[in-house]
Amino acid sequence: MTTTLPAYDEVVARYEPVIGLETHVELGTNTKMFCGCPTDFGGEPNTRVCPVCLGLPGSLPVANKAAIEATIRIGLALNCSIAEWCRFARKNYFYPDMPKNFQISQYDEPLCVDGYLDVEVNGEMVRIGIERVHLEEDTGKTLHVGGATGRIHGATESLVDYNRAGIPLVEIVTKPIPGIGALAPEVARAYVTELRDVLRSLGVSDVRMEEGSLRCDVNTSLNLPGEEWGTRTETKNVNSLRSVERAVRSEMLRQAAVLDAGGRITQETRHFHEDTGDTTPGRSKETATDYRYFPEPDLVPLAPDPVWVAELKAVLPELPRLHRRRLQEAWGLSDLDMQSVLNAGAVELIEQTIAAGTSPAAARKWWLGELSRRANETGVELADIGATPTQVAELQSLVDAGKLNDKLARTVLEGVVAGEGSPTEIMTNRGLEVVSDTGALTAAVDEAIAANPEIADKIRSGKVAAAGALVGAVMKTTRGQADAKTVRELILARLGA
Ligand SMILES: [Zn+2]
Fold it and tell me: Where would I find the Asn/Gln amidotransferase domain in this sequence (predicted)?
């Protein structure tokens, strides 16, 4: 399509966006949803399968209690009501990555309903309604080979791996989110970010978007002010936080161009392309009747004991938003300073560094200063920079003990990032320790005095400020390793000032 897209500001001046998000989370249980097969990532294709997850005739599923517990905890953290009785349902469709030709899911009786998640966007709180949280099983993976693009078009054959088939999958669906105008792309991103943090704090999934354990579909529609909501499209499998934001924005622009030209929006799924930031049409969207849902006859209904649910609720971890608020107070940071910690992805790193004995100010200095700078330069996430909170805490303890000054500490940190070992090892191996031993420094001091007789005379005559130049000379000959305070004292003592 060659249509010129309108400017974003014009689009949000004329249209009102409504978005909605459907997020799939692979749970980190040891076994699959309805059988005992292991769930760990990366085995040889079709080695983690059994008659149940291959859908062989006569096999019977048994629901995984750990997955049900994780789903209830997610529902509780999202302020949902937990069903006292609900059933699994069969969602019937044919696709080769689904060996049974139906997926066990939940339809009109989800486990958790009607909750919310508060997210902060540009300092404002936006409450996102949660429609439902339900439990289902993942599909296998198909690999199309022989073509240029890895897609089915042009491929000579397709391979299928059922290792993932049957892994417990939780689907979290928001209510439609109207009334956010130009902020729609940022709200979408903030929601997925906050949801990811909630799921991580619950310990129910490793929530890695790049590995597909957290996957997001984004619904977008536009309407004129005062009119009914428009037809929505569903952009599938957007696999990074940045892409969530880009997918909403690009779909808003595309739909506005269609509507401006007098066209109609087709209800369909669309694919987001990371490289161009565009979406292209997928299949036209099935409706619920196409799936011929009916209650799963091979599983008993789920009836979580309310006492058990209350127990799970009582021991939920502190929510990330409240946790961050508490840390901000404990660390004495302004909103702006806390925001820069968040933007750098440094909250947990700083928290762990402090837990290892460093002061909040020093922990923040290392992670937001030297280490953030290196992360930006090399384009890696701060958490993957190669230095751990324990190492940063050890580095600071060497500074506190006077064994490293700031400059030497930076050199040691370079070694840590390069994988040379612990700060103490690097300091020792590279001989970087501050020299404060007066015996060792006296020779360097005497040399500096001898080389600078005029400055020495000034100091003798009482111009103590001139000592700085001699301290500088000693620092130079000791490659920055002399303890400046000791050097100064030695100079003054030597010259009787
Ligand atoms: Zn199995």
Answer: 348-495
